[in-house]
TrEMBL record:
Alphabetical list of SMART domains matching this protein: HTH_LUXR, REC
Annotated InterPro entries: CheY-like_superfamily, EvgA-like, NreC/VraR/RcsB-like_REC, Sig_transdc_resp-reg_C-effctor, Sig_transdc_resp-reg_receiver, Tscrpt_reg_LuxR_C
Protein name in the entry: Response regulator transcription factor
PROSITE patterns according to UniProt: HTH_LUXR_1, HTH_LUXR_2, RESPONSE_REGULATORY
Keyword Membrane attached: no
Residue numbers of 4-aspartylphosphate PTMs: 55
Keywords for this protein: DNA-binding, Phosphoprotein
Response regulatory domain span: 3-120
GO biological process: phosphorelay signal transduction system; regulation of DNA-templated transcription
Alphabetical list of Pfam families matching this protein: GerE, Response_reg
UniProt-recorded Gene Ontology molecular function terms: DNA binding
Length: 218
C-alpha cells in the first residue's frame, strides 16, 4: 500500500495516527519522527515516502519555515499538516506553502481516515469550516471567480461546486447526488478548468460569495 511518515513530537498522537492508518490502509508502512531535523534526515535517506503527516508545532518548525525546508527537501512528496492550529489565515497559508491538506487534531478517527483517503485520491483537503469560511478581502479579491467563468458551468457542475463549498469530499458528493465518484471527479476537473483554478481549495475560496440560487435558476 503506502509508505507514510508521521512527524510529530507527541508519542501518543503518533500512536493514534499509526493506528488509524493501519485500520484504513492495511498493509501500509508507517515511520515516525519527532522534530524537523530528524524528519529532514529521514526523507533525505528515504525517497519512497508516499505521504508526510507534519505537525506545525514540533521542535524546529520555526513557524512555517520547517514546512518550507521539508518542501524544498522533497518537492514531489505530498505533505499534510496535522495540527491543533485554529487561525484560519495560517491554515490557508500552509496550502500556499505547498501542503496538500490540513487535518485538525481535534478531528474524529473517522474524519481523519476520510481525509487521508481523499488526499490519496488526489484532492486537496481542508476542514469543512475553513472551506466555507470567508477569507480576508485581499485574498477573496485575488481568488474571486468572475461571473463570466461561473456562467460557463453546467447546472450539474454548479451543483457539484456548491457541495464543494460545503467542504464535502468526492465520496460524499457522489452519495448525495446519487452518482459515481468517477463522475464527480470528472465534474470537478471540468469545474477547475473552467474557473482557471489549480485545485479545489482555490476554486472554493473563489466562490465564497457566489449566490448559487441565482445561477441555478437559469
Amino acid at each position: 500500500m503506502y509508505n507514510i511518515l508521521v512527524a510529530d513530537d507527541h508519542p501518543l498522537f503518533r500512536d493514534a495516527i499509526v493506528n488509524i492508518i493501519g485500520i484504513k490502509f492495511p498493509g501500509s508502512t508507517t515511520y515516525e519522527t519527532e522534530d524537523v531535523d530528524s524528519t529532514l534526515a529521514f526523507v533525505k535517506d528515504n525517497d519512497d515516502v508516499d505521504l508526510i503527516l507534519l505537525d506545525l508545532n514540533m521542535p524546529g518548525m520555526l513557524n512555517l519555515n520547517g514546512l518550507l525546508d521539508l518542501r524544498n527537501q522533497c518537492p514531489t512528496t505530498p505533505i499534510v499538516i496535522v495540527s491543533a492550529e485554529q487561525e484560519k489565515q495560517k491554515i490557508l497559508q500552509t496550502i500556499s506553502y505547498g501542503a496538500v491538506g490540513f487535518i485538525a487534531k481535534s478531528s474524529s478517527k473517522d474524519m481523519i481516515a476520510d481525509a487521508l483517503e481523499s488526499i490519496f485520491q488526489g484532492n486537496v483537503y481542508l476542514p469543512a469550516d475553513i472551506m466555507r469560511s470567508q477569507v480576508s478581502t485581499t485574498t477573496s479579491h485575488e481568488n474571486q471567480a468572475l461571473p463570466e467563468k461561473i456562467s460557463l458551468l453546467t447546472r450539474r457542475e454548479l451543483i457539484v461546486l456548491q457541495h464543494l463549498t460545503k467542504g464535502e469530499a468526492n465520496k460524499k458528493i457522489a452519495f448525495n447526488l446519487h452518482i459515481s465518484e468517477t463522475t464527480v471527479k470528472s465534474h470537478v476537473s471540468s469545474i477547475l478548468k473552467k474557473l482557471g483554478a489549480s485545485n479545489r481549495v482555490k476554486a472554493v475560496l473563489g466562490c465564497s460569495n457566489i449566490d448559487f440560487n441565482h445561477y441555478l435558476k437559469r
